[in-house]
Amino acid sequence: MAAPAIEPPVRILLVSGSLRDGSTNTALLRTAHALAPKGAVTTVYEGLGDLPHFNPDDDVDGEPLAPAPAHLRAQLDAVDAVLFSTPEYAGALPGSFKNLLDWTVGGGTHDKPVAWVNASGLPTGAAGAHASLRTVLTYTGTDIVEAACAHIPVPRHSIGPDGLVGDAAIRERIAAALTALVAHVAARRRDDER
Questions:
Q1: Which residues make beta-bridge pairs with 116?
Q2: Domain extents for the chain?
Q3: Which of 21, 52, 96, 118 could make a disulfide contact with 125, Cβ separation 3.0–4.6 Å?
Q4: In whole angstroms, what separates CA 106 from the centre of its chain?
């Protein structure tokens, strides 16, 4: 018996913490976009490099935001969940990605289901970055979906010329993380209907 359709579809924003061309984190998320399970609609966020440095003076209630952070918050407000994938630099989050997270403190992620996938091939993964990410997401009051958080090493040679991960085992794990995130959102919807 087929699983019931999810209506409306679960909308997921895929956010890479890397600005690097050829990033394994970005390749992982583009692959997630290609593998979106039935009942899910995914969007890859493309504006990381456009965000200005966060300054609380530029984020005042009632005042319009600059276009790039306004677009980020609009995309966050339009989705049901967020899936992050970020590298680690110097034992923590990359500065550009932390800047993105700073822009979400004023809106966009509170009570939103979030998860992250770790593409690092090192045995320790990007543990420092993900500990920092957990701290920030806890502070902003997100709903961290542990079942969708995963360490999925992505070797560079597994990325094809199309920028997608071709390895079947890795693709299966990416799809499983997305499926867990979709299932969590669907469960929350059912609870809200009770």
A1: 84
A2: 10-193
A3: 118
A4: 18
The 10s digit of each residue's pLDDT in 20-52 is 988 999 999 999 999 999 999 999 999 999 999
pTM for this prediction: 0.94
Query: How far, rounded to the nearest angstrom, does the alpha carbon of residue 10 sit from its chain's CA centroid?
Result: 14
The Cα 10–Cα 130 span in angstroms is 24
- CA 46 from chain center: how many Å? 12
Q: Which residues touch 21 (CB under 8 Å, ≥6 apart)?
A: none
Q: Is the bond preceding 8 in cis, omega lying within 30 degrees of 0?
A: yes
Distance of CA 59 to CAs 3, 47, 54, 70, 132, Å?
43, 18, 8, 10, 23
Work out the burial of residue 96: count CB atoms within 10 Å of its CB; fewer than 13 is exposed, 13-18 middle, 19 or more buried.
middle
Chain Cα centroid distance, residue 40: 14
Six-digit token string for 76: 């966050």
